[in-house]
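Q: Structure tokens for this one, please.
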Amino acid sequence: MSILLTSRAERYGDRTGIIAPEGSFTYRQLLDASGKVASFLLDGSKDLQQRPVAFLAPPGFHYVALQWGIWRAGGIAVPLSVFHPRPELEYVLDDTTPAAVVAHPDFVSRIDSVAGKRNLRFALSTEALDSVAGPLPSVVESRRAMILYTSGTTGKPKGVVSTHENIAAQITSLVEAWGWTVEDRILEVLPLHHIHGIVNVIACALWVGAVCEIFPAFDAQKVWDRIAQGGHLCKADRRLGEGICCRTGTHVPGLPPDAAYGVRFSGLAGPDLREVEGDFRTCPVGAIRNDRDRYVPFQPAAGEAVSRMGRDPIAGGGSEVN
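A: Here is the predicted structure, written as tokens:
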């Protein structure tokens, strides 16, 4: 069995994989779209040979199709932040010297002149998605797959390179720790130029054949409304607010009066919300102390945390992980 994320999608065929602002898409449609992107990027060549390709797209189907297309062409995906000003975009392009820069039509004005000034190949995501699919290279697990940049807290942002094998290892550890299933759904509201949104949310969901509902941007009320609709949501993000770490019925200023009702943790959770993922440092201290046995905060090292605990935090009431 190949550990490449894109190869696994073939087994899920006509199952819905992505619900995004552009519509609802099956795994087959994602494979078809990313195949077109890959052929467009290859432009007659046989393999990108691990050359970086930068792309700027809002959260949605275009984003995932571009990412997968770069991988399937043998390139290294370099996601650009939709929040970054021109100097930061210039920094990443200068540091990676990509083979191409692809942008969603809504962001052309942000990046086309930056790419043109550097004589980089520039294209629209719509152009890539409208191309014709052709033969694609065989991509092995040891190849470099992605470059993500640090926040630059102690200096200039640094590019961190991951191979396909690295990404697969992260995904499988999280899938095991969180007990992902094909019947799960997850809401994606995180920035997609950092590891959490890319791997912990989208990649994990698509690895197991689940559904990833991608929001164009974070909106607290819309997220609460979506949770209230039900539908076997697998995870939730800490951006839902402090109230989500409080016991049922606890109201937190800034949230709708009934926002916390029906949202519970671990073994106490209702059938439509099996687990809450997040960093609970923003929670009221009193709430954490009172409910310390009702939640398990998960970070990227979830697999290690669960291993230390020696039990399933979802099946039996959770414990605090320090």
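A few notes: The two ends are 36 Å apart (CA to CA). The first helix runs from residue 5 to 8.
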